[in-house]
Amino acid sequence: MSYDREDLEPEHRPEAVKQRLSQPPQVNSMPDAILGGIDGCVTTFAVVSGAFGAGFSPTVALVLGVANLLADGFSMAVSNYEASQAQQEHIDSVARREYHHIQLIPEGEREEIRQIFRAKGFDGELLERVVETLTDDHDIWVDTMLKEEHSLQPVGLSPLRAALTTFFAFIIVGAMPLLPYALSGLDAVTQFLASLLIAGAMFFGIGMLKSLVYHRPMLRSGFRTLLIGGAAAGLAFISGHLAHALFGLN
């Protein structure tokens, strides 16, 4: 998405910039929602495809789909929570180490700040003023070291929010391909084809949503996500069909 100068000027006026930068950083839950949605749809439709390929009844496909939906959704949410928590603990550990280093060898830590900003083009008296200003407050000093030396962002992480977002996106999107199997009066082929269309629409929709958020080409993003989900479902179908042929599953 492109903007004209007239569109950008209001939000770049001094008062607007000051107000925007004074607000606390917002937690971006969209990556967790996209991850949960795609994985949920892949999980349940893979079960449906495998069951259909193996010749199982629609009831078996529904039971397996619901069981996998709940178990995998919980597992993925816990995994995302643990990953976010581990990242936060790592940031806290590095921050504590930097505070300790500042207490023990402040001149060495100042030299790190000096070299970091010299590499950015600062020099002479201006460089020394920057070093003095940043190292005058230990919190700002450590925050700068986290970002510049360790490439860590000390704010914006919420493990619980990440886990809940992943779980609900997984459950809501993942339940969609199972809807035809919850309807009575449809034969197995019709249920599978309806599930296939719904899953395809979910994959394509998630890809388009991702493109709107991150300003990427909509159709390309939609088809890319559809291709990834279709490949996973295809593998599940082939596996189920081969298992049926090799082991005589009924």
Automatic annotation (TrEMBL):
GO terms for molecular function: manganese ion transmembrane transporter activity. The keyword Iron-sulfur does not apply. The keyword Transmembrane helix applies. Keywords: Membrane, Transmembrane, Transmembrane helix. It is found in: Endomembrane system. This is VIT family protein. PANTHER family: FE(2+)/MN(2+) TRANSPORTER PCL1 (PTHR31851).
